[in-house]
Amino acid sequence: MSPAAPPVFRRVWPAWLALLLAALAGATWWWAIGRPVALPDAPSARIACVSYAPFRLAGETPLDARAYISPERIDADLRALSQRFDCVRTYSQGQGLSAVPEIAGRYGMQVLLGIWLGGDAKSNAQQVALGIATANRYPQVVRGLIVGNEVLLRGELSPARLAGYLQQVRAAVGVPVTYADVWEFWLRHPELAGSVDYLTIHILPYWEDQPVPPEGAVQHVAAVYAKVQQAFPGRRVMIGETGWPSAGRPRQAASASVVNEARYLREFLRYAATVHMPYNVIEAFDQPWKRAQEGTAGGYWGIFDAQARPKFAMQGPVTEEPRWWLGWLAAAAGGVLFALAGGRRPPHRPAARPAAGRHGQQQHAAWQYRRALYACRDGWEWALSLAACALALLTALRLARWMVAARLDGDPAPGVPPRLAARRLAVRAGVLRPAARGRRALPGFSAGPVLAAVRRLCAARLAGRAPCGRAAAAGGTLPRPVAVAAGPRGAGAGSRPHPGGVAMAGPEPAAGAAGAGGVVAREALGGAIGAARRAVVFGDSQVGGCGRGCCLITSIPVDHPH
Hints:
CATH superfamily of the largest domain: Glycosidases
Order of helices and strands: HHEHEHEHEHHEHEHEHHHHHHHHEEHEHE
Distance between the termini: 30 Å
Largest sheet: 7 strands, parallel
Radius of gyration: 37 Å
CATH topology of the largest domain: TIM Barrel
Structural class: alpha/beta
Strand content: 5-15%
Number of helices: 19
């Protein structure tokens, strides 16, 4: 007859159920993101124009004045992009980008050339001079000149100063000139329309003040585009930026994911083909440097990732995470690790309970690592993230060992009578046989001394602290398991009295087994309880033992009050 689970664990079944549900939810989540999602196909894999910035490798940023991209790098990028795009949009001059029109011309591409404007008048003057010179050098390649990008949104220039730069550039070049900003700013400053050849608006449903979910994003774009056309009748309007991020925090119902990016771009291209409007999508490659300014989402608007690998196709199903099975693998590895950390479970302890906790924990750890893979921007952030994950893992392992110790400790539940609690401890220790069904157990049983004796039996430190083999070699004999007499204070037949009313059966030990003045008890490792079990689990060097499947040698001084 196997002992029943102790009351403390029967009381926490809701927690085990929650762990089981969490583990199932984690497994389901990993499975779900690995399922192919059917999406409408784009009319073509070819796209009219795409934003291009070559700052995609670790540590590269246009904010570094010393940054420089070689013509060879730009050539490799544009050669690959020419297979899918007819045009690229740039945002600034210098840092090697002035070579873009020449290289793009080799591959039959056109360029929307960008001039970066900000609050620094000297830098603005340099940008304007370079932009004018490049546009005049490659008039067949430069399709338009975009003077300033969202400078009103950032508040770095007034509308009047911006209009001055627009007029200066417009008078010096023979290509169309425009300014690009979020669509609301064109509605707020309609006077700028007189300084440009056409309007360039940005419509980004994810970044709207009221974020738009991906399912309704293209309808939102169509409504905004129509609104701007109505505000500027007869003027040509181009969408200069539109797209969706593949990673980052959700903004209300606007969730960043690979599937949602593919959904948005495919649906937008279908819409753009019906209205024949000029457009540019953002962007060619992921830009890790943008995460510092815009958060995680800022770095993941690319159709290609930072290693120039396409994230998805324009036809057929799309999978969010092709390596979804790594989450299950992490859960399985975590289960093995926790099992090793927690030690052997007792026979009465169901394996499914801790397994659920382990799997749920490791699936969460795998999810956290996946998030860190997208969010960490530098070595310092990676170090912090990995340190936090390691701390969480160590905490979980420590908790697993504590759970084993608590399970073995068998502390009585509040409200359980001391006599019953003591008897349960004795039964679980294997030193007292359970009473037969329907029979009153232990009449006149004194709970306090037995409770203390059983606990101290398993918790007392060794006098000898020697493994079984060494104890025997020293001339000692190992006694049989101790039995607690079922009677009032006194000794039963064949037992020797112990102060406190606890009678312990078994022969007197030899002196070499425990030292003078002590009573030696042999407990099988599977039956030891209380602090001794906890000490074994945590590797306490003060408690002796022979290792798995052998014994503990515990000394209780005879003069102990219990």
